[in-house]
């Protein structure tokens, strides 16, 4: 396998790296952020900077204003963008918008794309993806979907509660998963200002890197025209896979950038800070942590690149994306945890970005499927394949 990147991709990588260093990192301590993420004003400024740099929404097609990046190219660019917690917001490649745009390009009608996708790709609007529900509704087990969509004339009437909905506050539209009368799951598109949609509250969370935070959304008799179904009725779970396999992987890419940033800071500190007569890095205990970091970072990158390459070959990669998600979320977490340790007291304070990366990253082992659920699903596939052979 040839790991050499083509010259145009190397150029894009270098361009993204400089953009993040010069235009994004200086805004990391901007006051227009709170515990629920960057404000809309800050997001717009970041997006404008990326637009001027020619880096906005690079993953969507050229027709939609992007660069039409392959999955492998995304792996390279998203890692660079992820070096700053504001980078994915700037490039308009953060969750949930990045995954939603991918799904919209794959499934939405031409009219739906013009109405919702085009302004989103231009960075003018945001979206959310509403699937998870409080008990007894869907969580790790999506089949427990409790939100209902009942046909009434030319419309569907949606009722239910969703929570953990990233970016819900001030999102312009939502993709809502609901159960039809025959029990089949369907995805609906709806503007967020439609009657009956209420953001009950924003949940206080460990992370603060997603614009709009994580909201609790109530849908009460929300009337959605049948024409606003995304794709075909009853194919909600299939489309969830269309969205989730690549979306899981793009989380891995962005968080790899954050883990690399933490590692770079830890290396720098370990080289400069002395204890017991020599730099920390020359103490075996610290040096081994740096070596372990490097191994975890490279293992993550290889899983990402391999799965991205398979996606580019047209494979669905449900198994591989589960595997990459578990490997990356756990390896990258270990990296950042070691960095906290290497930085000593500063590691648990806001003196360096590492504390922030540590708290922002924790949820990665839970959303888009907890590690246990991916292991369980992989185990079933492994056993099934063995039985079939
Ligand atoms: C920061 C954040 C952002 C999110 N954003 C969104 C969003 O934008 N849209 C959206 O729809 N959802 C979102 N989610 C929800 C997320 O996808 C769910 O939290 C996740 O799927 C787990 O569901 P749950 O929280 O209901 O956990 P539960 O289903 O209650 O599971 C709890 C725990 O049980 C264990 N478990 C479950 N099943 C198994 C099994 N088969 N084997 C072994 N152990 C198991 C796991 O350890 C799991 O963590 C987000 C969550 C977080 C934390």
UniProtKB/TrEMBL annotation:
GO biological process, one term: fatty acid beta-oxidation using acyl-CoA dehydrogenase
Acyl-CoA oxidase/dehydrogenase middle domain sequence ranges: 128-206
Record domain Acyl-CoA dehydrogenase/oxidase C-terminal: where: 234-382
Pfam families, sorted: Acyl-CoA_dh_1 (PF00441), Acyl-CoA_dh_M (PF02770), Acyl-CoA_dh_N (PF02771)
Keyword terms: FAD, Flavoprotein, Oxidoreductase
Cofactor(s) the record lists: FAD
SUPFAM superfamilies: Acyl-CoA dehydrogenase C-terminal domain-like, Acyl-CoA dehydrogenase NM domain-like
Record PROSITE patterns: ACYL_COA_DH_2
Acyl-CoA dehydrogenase/oxidase N-terminal domain span: 7-123
GO CC entries: cytoplasm
Domain of life: Bacteria
GO molecular function: acyl-CoA dehydrogenase activity; flavin adenine dinucleotide binding
Subunit structure: Homodimer.
Similarity remark: Belongs to the acyl-CoA dehydrogenase family.
Protein name: Acyl-CoA dehydrogenase
Organism, as annotated: Simplicispira suum
